[in-house]
Design a protein that fits this description.
- The protein has helices at residues 8-28, 31-45, 52-58, 64-87, 94-121, 123-133, 135-149, 157-178, 186-194, 198-208, 211-219, 221-226, 228-238, 245-250, 258-265.
- The two termini are 33 Å apart.
- Helices cover 76% and strands 0% of the residues.
- It is mainly alpha-helical.
Length: 266
């Protein structure tokens, strides 16, 4: 069984065409809505979050497509975010933005190479270390969320929190629509497109000093976790049956007819 690991057409639509279209509409709008268009365009242009790896695998994904999606979406997003900043007269911040965009790539590739070398060299010790220290990732993530909310007023949940929840639903509908239906990698497609690197957007919003974007991106952390039951429901609908011939062929699993298995047992 052979299939493309990476849906190039869908990725370009999701991470390039959509944010650039929204950004271009913003440049043609009046000053009162211009910032909203820019904020929405940046949120859409954010690359896949590294946490998509863990989420996708937990939901039954194949992991490797998620790695490719994170890497390639970051490359596409680098060009798109640079273009958006130029559209809105913020080209002076482009180099800072590109610098922060390299962090997800390095944060993915370097640990991956180190982990693969350690798993090959010290398989048992590495597995024990990963099992005993897995909670550290949750602690660090919780710390970032806490620090992010220190910079905003919690009363800003109305209206920014409501807008963030609406955007969280919208981006999941978009991801579900763009995921390759019937593909072995459909869960990776969905999760990678539904979980933008919101931490990167928060940092960019602070650099650009756009209060609206800071509030909107920070409150987006709420639906990112609160909508987990919805993600579980959608991934169950996307997941292939364990007896699917394509999945068994991919995994190189052969199921013998019942009468042959009985003969072998005898």
């Amino acid at each position: 069984y052979k299939e493309r690991l990476f849906p190039g057409d869908r990725l370009l639509i999701r991470f390039a065409l959509l944010p650039l279209t929204i950004g271009l509409l913003g440049t043609l709008s009046d000053d009162s809505t211009r910032t909203w268009f820019f904020a929405l365009a940046l949120l859409l242009a954010a690359p896949s979050a590294i946490t998509a790896l863990t989420i996708s695998r937990s939901a039954g994904g194949m992991v490797h497509p998620s790695v490719y999606m994170i890497f390639l979406s970051t490359l596409v997003s680098s060009v798109v975010i640079y273009t958006l900043l130029d559209f809105y007269g913020m080209a002076a911040f482009s180099y800072q933005a590109l610098g922060y965009l390299t962090v997800p790539v390095l944060g993915l590739i370097l640990p991956l190479l180190i982990a693969r070398w350690l798993r090959h060299k010290y398989p048992i010790s590495t597995a024990k270390f990963a099992e005993r220290n897995a909670a550290m990732a949750i602690v660090l993530l919780s710390l970032f969320v806490t620090v992010s909310f220190l910079s905003i007023d919690l009363e800003s949940f109305w209206p920014y929190g409501i807008y963030a929840i609406c955007f969280g639903l919208l981006i999941r509908i978009t991801a579900f629509s763009f995921a390759r239906q019937g593909s072995l990698y459909v869960i990776d497609d969905y999760v990678s497109m539904a979980y933008p690197n919101i931490f990167l957007v928060i940092v960019l919003a602070q650099i650009l000093n756009i209060e609206l974007l800071v509030h909107l991106a920070t409150w987006f952390l709420v639906p990112m976790f609160a909508l987990a039951p919805l993600d579980e429901f959608l991934c169950q609908r996307l997941q292939r049956d364990t007896k699917d011939p394509l999945l068994l062929s991919f995994l190189r699993v052969e199921i013998q007819p019942m009468h042959l298995r009985r003969e072998e047992e005898v």
